[in-house]
Amino acid sequence: MTIKEVCEQYHISPDTLRYYERVGIIPAVHRTKNNIRDYTEQDIGFVENALCMRNAGVPVEMVAQYMRLCQQGDETFLARRDLLREVREGIVKQIEKYQRELERLEYKIRRYDDALVTGKLVWDENETI
Amino acid sequence: MTIKEVCEQYHISPDTLRYYERVGIIPAVHRTKNNIRDYTEQDIGFVENALCMRNAGVPVEMVAQYMRLCQQGDETFLARRDLLREVREGIVKQIEKYQRELERLEYKIRRYDDALVTGKLVWDENETI
DNA sequence: ACTTGACTTAGAGTTTACTCCAACCTGTAT
DNA sequence: ATACAGGTTGGAGTAAACTCTAAGTCAAGT
To answer: I need a surface site. Which of A29, A79, A114, A126 has the fewest CB within 10 A?
Structure first.
């Protein structure tokens, strides 16, 4: 699979894909004899993993750390699981934070909905804007 | 309320607070006669709003846009509400994305939990890492 | 009077994660 | 043969959001 095909499938740019390889978020991709990247099933798996973790807000350096562990073999199962658990806690916290902000936001939107009818914007106590 | 007190209350740095003022995320803060920032109730309200929106992942420029609308008076209720609705849609999408990645992550963690018992890491079809 | 500590400014520097560029190679189509 | 489409590299550039620095002001304490 060429770099272009992978890009189209995952909606990312070739530059990003090469960048991911450079920083170790994905290991060196298989090449044709002309030195052109030819993504194997396994390479695609690495790309999916990278995108999954990046989408989850995991910093590039942490994904690289995970990949280094993966390449060190079976003794790193525990370290890998712990890293993924850490990532999970981060996402859970982030979702909770977003949900709190979402509530405040919906409250504000309701206030504006009211204001659009009454012509007057009113906040409950503790809210000023 | 001094800049330091506000910082402590909201766990941000004085630099960040001054930066927020500079870029218009919060309007010019009240000053003492010595030109020292002295946050009023209203200023604090602006700070809370800024932090709420930034925590929700809203870009600085969009918060500034919202604040500009707020300072233009009652004719901008509609525009403000629409901006907040847009922000809300963004957060909802982000939460959904995080929840999808969370599921993949929990699957992986379970696989590692198994591997730590059996000594063998096994993926279902479609997963390689 | 002098030091200390907390504030002020403008502007430069940093970090993260890309994104672009110039120069080059190579197989296929005209 | 030559143009073109698509790849390659190292390295420079960019955007966003801070974060730091230098130089200065000011009030209080010794």
So the answer is: A126
